[in-house]
Amino acid sequence: MMDDTDKTRDKTMNEPTGLPTDKPDCFGHLDQVFPMTGTGLRETPEKCMDRCGLKTPCLKQAMGSDQATRVEEEIIERGTKTGAINFFERWSRKKQIHRKTKRNRR
Prior knowledge:
- This protein is mainly alpha-helical.
- The protein is 59% helix and 0% strand.
- The chain has two domains: 27-64, no CATH class; 66-106.
- It has helices spanning 4-13, 30-33, 46-51, 55-63, 68-82, 87-105.
């Protein structure tokens, strides 16, 4: 049996999160919310960091998309060029990416 404090707690947990409900056109688009910079690294633009209340769910959606495999492959290639990743580790990671994208298409 619930007492009054339990009812209040449930009501509080079910309230809206306070995040905006309207999503901007750029929401979840990898090249807009996590573009490649002139240095060859990806970086979130200032407009996302400062003004958008949806930056975390937006980046999560962008990194959960099929486009995110490019980011993973870029990381592998950078590691290979710097010598941090050897041939077999590179091969293994690329195979994992391929398997993940194959699973996601099903």
